Predict the structure.
Amino acid sequence: MSDAVPVEVVAPAQSPMPELKLEFRGRPREYFRIWIVNLCLTLLTLGIFSAWAKVRKKRYLYANTVVDGTPLQYLGQPVPILKGRLIAAALAVVYFFASHLTPVLMPYLLAAALVLAPWVLSRSAAFNARYSGFRNMTFGFNGDYLAAARTLYWLGLIPALVIGGIFSFWGQPWLAAPLAALAGLLFPWWLQRLKRFILSNTHFGGEFGEYTATGGQLWAIYLVATLITLGLSLVTVLPVSLMLQNWKYGWIATMVPAYFSYVVAYAYVQANSANLLWNNSTLGPLRFESSLETIGLLKLYLSNAMAITASLGLLIPWAVMRTLQYRVDHLRVSAASLNAFCAEQADSVAAVGAEVGEFFDLDLSL
């Protein structure tokens, strides 16, 4: 009786998930018409029209971003946004007068800001999610005040910096320098926690997002960017400053290589941090792959800057369109099926938090 010959069972290779076609169909000429009307009417109405301008701009950009043949939707309305902006402007006025006329009130205002900031973070993310849609379903955000506070005030860094400002720590280098250095070293980990908080609490059709990148990966990006800035400054800014040190306006000439060093480092951070974000993010069955390149972004930024300067700002819409086109061209979206997303009940979200965050330049976009 012969021995049985074992049969090797080969597992079938997993086929890659099908890629969803991602397109950006925005056109500079179309966007210019929206941009110039928004600009003129905002100036003529002393800023009142800015809420309508925001809605018109976002609706155009969303409608021209198409996933699997279906455009994204922006569902925000101008009146709630205007109310939010008026409240944000009132807060800015209070801060201005307190800082210039009654400095004694500043500690109380800063303490109030520390209490308010987590609410602004959570409500801004909730507003942006609630009024963004796809296939007639809207996104949602479940992050609450306490979770936002734990994210913002991780290790107490921001409160320590605020308290330092109140009690003039910055006049004491022995105390200010270590505090500022510690905040700078830990910033990438803080930013990673912030992105994870926003994405992990964002949901669409019953599916929640997930962000798996680490603070160490983000820290490495900022470290390389710092080395790029220092290295380019040594080989460009330093020689120029030494050659022109006896010229009265020599410092102006050093601004060109200094700006170039900054733009190179900025392009590196933007390309690699965006790749890290997208390549480590999921939303239910959706998977993302970003392939931005430092050189590509650098060429884009420099040509945009030269075009905008030469046109006295009139080519801003052209620069915006080609930047968005470049980013979309280097992003891939794949999913086994979009049928996993189910419609959810969506509640309205006030625009105050979003507008306060935008007014004070708090960028919560991913």
User: Anything to note?
Assistant: The first helix runs from residue 28 to 44. Residues 87 and 330 are 38 Å apart (CA to CA). The chain has twelve helices and eleven strands. Residues 4-13, 359-366 have pLDDT under 50 and may be disordered.
